[in-house]
Amino acid sequence: MKRREAALLLVSAAVLAYQVLLMRAFSIGQWHHFAYMVISIALLGFGASGTLLAALQRRSTNLGVRSLPARAAGAGWFALSATLFALAVPVSFGVAQKIPFDPFLIVWDRQQLLYLGCYYLVLFVPFFAAAGAIGLALITESDHCPRLYFYNLVGSGAGAALAVGLLQVAPVEAAVLAVGALAQGAAVLALLDAALPLAEPRSRRLGAAVGLAAMATLTLAYAKHPPTVRLSQYKGLSYALNLPEARLVAQRSSPLGRVDVVASPAIRHAPGLSLVTPPEAATPPQLGLHVDAENAGAITAFDGNTTKLAYLDWMTPAAPYFARQDSPRELRVCVLGAGGGAGVLLALRHAARQVDAVELDANVLDLLRRTFREFSGALYDRPEVRVHRAEARSFMEAASGAWDVIDLSLVDSFAAAAGGVGAVGENYLYTREAFETYLRHLRPHGLLAVTRWVHLPPRDELKLFATAVAALERKGLHPAERMVLVRSWATATLLVKNEPITSAELAALRRWAAQRLFDAAYFPGIAPSEGNRFNVLDRDYYSEASVAILAGGARREQFFRDYAFYLRPATDDRPYFFHFFRWRALPLMLGTVGTAWIPFVEWGYLILVATLVQAALLGALLIALPLVLLRRGAQPNDSTPARSPSGQHAQLWVLLYFLALGLGYLFVEMALIQRLVFFLANPIYSVAVVLAGLLLVSGLGSGWAARQLRKGRSTARLASFAAFAVAATATLYAFGLRGALSPLLGWPLAARMGVAFAVMVPFTTMGMPFPLALRYLGRTNAELLPWAWAINGCASVVATSLATLLALGAGLAAVLVGAAACYVVAALVARQWEEQPSAGPARD
After folding, report:
1. E-assigned strand segments in 255-384
2. What is the spatial distance between Cα 814 and Cα 818, in angstroms, rounded to a whole number?
3. I want to staple 435 with a disulfide (CB 3.0 to 4.6 A). Which of 2, 342, 471, 792 is the partner?
4. Among residues 110, 123, 108, which one has the least CA distance to residue 30?
5. Closest to 695 (Cα-Cα) out of 762, 754, 766
6. pLDDT tens digits for 301-324?
7. Is pLDDT of 247 > 90?
C-alpha cells in the first residue's frame, strides 16, 4: 500500500467516524432532528468539493488523468486538503459548542438565523476538506479508480465501526480527539508523500513542517482544554441542574447515549399524578435519570417496604393492577423499558410473584445495581426480579413465556414526545405487529398496558387505540369488548385483552379512576357523556375517535382522512408511530398556541422537509457551479480521444448516471439500517453493521472490478452488470428480507449480527458502478470528472432526506424499490456507452 493510498484510507475512516460522533454530540446537546439538518447541510461539502476540483481543473495543474503535468502537483493538493481536514476536526467541533443557537427562539430572535448559518459554515469546513482530498485522489488517478475506491470504501466502513467502538469506551468529546488524531495520521502520510521526493522544492517541505507543527499544537490544546457538549436550555438535564441544590452525581457514556443522574431535594418524578393524591401517598426521595440530557424517569429510594410506594397507585399505569385486584392468581409481570425501575416497583407493590424487567442500556442497569444499589434497595437484584438486557420488541419476539401484565410505559420524555422528536425515527414498539406479539404473550385474562403522554389535540393515545384495534381485528377478535382507555391530566393508559373485559374488571377500574379524577375515555358500553368529566376538554375527542375507529369501514377511513393528525396504525414496514404531522395541523397549532408554536410543532417532520429543500437548492447550485467553471475554462485536451462523446450527450449521461448512483446507494443504506434495527434489537448495532458491512463489501466489489479490468474486461459491461445486480438484490430484499429474518429473532446477538453482515454480501457489486464510470469518464471526457464528483456528493445528501420521506409515506419496501429503479437507470446509461463506437471502454 502506497503512502497516498494509506492516507486515503485514513481520511475516509476519519470523516465517517467524525460524522457519527457529530450526530451523537448534537443528539445530546440539541435533539437529533436538528443534528440531522445541520450535519446534512454540512455534508454538502462533498458536493462543494466538486467546485474546488473544477477550479483546479482550470489551472495549469489540470486534473485530467493524462494531462497532469506532474504527479507531485496532485500530491500537493491532496496533502493540503488532508491537512486542512486534520486541523478542522478539533477546531470545528470546539467552535460549534460555543455557538449560542437556540431553535426555539428562531421566530422571535432573527439573530438565531445567523447562528444557524454559523453552524453550517463551521461544520462545513472539515467535510469540504475531506471530500476534496478523496475527490483529488480518485480523479487525478481515474485510471486506477477502482483500486483507490476500494481503499476509500474500506476506510469508510472501518470508520463507522471505529466510531461505535470509541463511544463504547469514551465520551463523545474524547472520541473526537481520537478521530482528530486519525485525521492527523492521514495528513502526515499525505505531507510525506508530497514533500519527500528529492525533486520537491524547499518551500513545500517547509509547508509540510508548518502543517505538522500546527496539528501538534491543536492536539495539545484540545487535550488540555477539551470542549464540552453545549446543552439546550430546554433539555431536561438543563432544567434539573437549575433545581435547588442540584448536582450531577453520575455520568456514563455509550453508543446508546449518555446517561446522567442528578440529585436535588426538588426532584419528584410522578407523571400524571392525580391532583387529589393524599398526603400519605407522597413521592419518596428520587434521583433524576437523564439519557442524552433528556428526562428518562427517576431512581426511587426503596428499602423493601412497598407501603411507601402508594403514590404509584395514583398514576394511570396502575390501571391493570386494579382491574385484576380480585384475581386469586399471583401475578407474572413483564416491564418493557424498565429504566429507573418505576414499573418494577409498581409490580412489587401489587405483590407480583415474578417481574421480568427488560432494559436495553447497560449503563442504566449498572447504575442501579452498583452505583446506587443501596439507594434503590438493590431493586434489580431482588429474587422476584429477573433483569434482561435487551430491546423490548426483540425480547418479546424471542420469549417463550406469558405474563398477566405486560407494561410498556413512557419510554420517552414528554419534551421529546411533544416536540415530535421521533417523528422521522423508526420505532418497532408501537406497530400493529408488535401489538400482536404482546397479545400473544398474555396469559388467560392477562392485560397489555401501554401508557403515553397526553397532548392536545390528542394523537399518541388515539393512534395507540387505532393500532390495538387493528391488531385485535387481525386476530379475528372484536375490539370494542377488549379495550379500556384511562386518562389523567398528563398521561393516558390503554388496556387491551384477548378476552372481553369482565363486568367486575370494568367496575373496579371505574371506581379506581373516579377516586383519582381520571377520565375513563373509553370502555365497553360507554355513554357519550361519561368520558369527559374530570379533565374536561372543549370537545370529547376520545369519544369521537373511538366511535369512528371501532365502526370500521368507510366511517373509520373518513375519520383518518379528516383528523388533524396522522393516526393510521404504524406497521413493521412503516414503523413510524410518532409520525403525526399533516400540513393541515399547522394552522390548528398556530390557532391554539399562537406565536409560541415553535416548541410544540412536530419538529422532526418539518426539519426533514426543510433539510430536503435546503439540500436540493444548495445541491443544484453546487452541481451547476463546476459546470459553469468548466465551460468558461474549456480547452482542447490532447489526451482525450478524438471520438469521445459529444459535450451535451456526455453531460446528460453524467448527470443521469451519477444522480442515480448517489440516490440509489443511500436509499439502500437507509432502508437496510431501518429494517435491521428490528432484527438487531439496537439502532447502534444496525448503523454499525450496515455502514461497516455495506462499505466493506462495496470496497471488495471495487477491488474485484480492478482485477477484471486488468484481465481486459469491458468497463461498460462491468458497470451495467453491477448496476443490474444491485437492482435485482434491492427488489428481492424489498419483499423478502423481513420475512426471511423474522424466524431468526431468537438467535443470539452475535449470530444475528453475522446474519446481518451476510445480508450485505449480495450488495458487493454496489462498489463497482461509481469507480468504473470515473475511469471511463477519465478516458473520454476527463474535464467532467469534477462535475461527476459534485453530482454524486449532492445526490447522496438529498437522498437521506428523500428516502426518509418516502419511507414515511410508502414504507421501507418502497425505498428499496426506489433504489432498484435508480440502479436500473444507471445500468441503462452504462449500456449506452457501448452503443457509442467512439466511446468504447479502454483496456488496461
Report:
1. 257-263, 286-291, 294-300, 332-336, 354-359
2. 6
3. 471
4. 123
5. 766
6. 999 999 999 999 999 999 999 998
7. yes
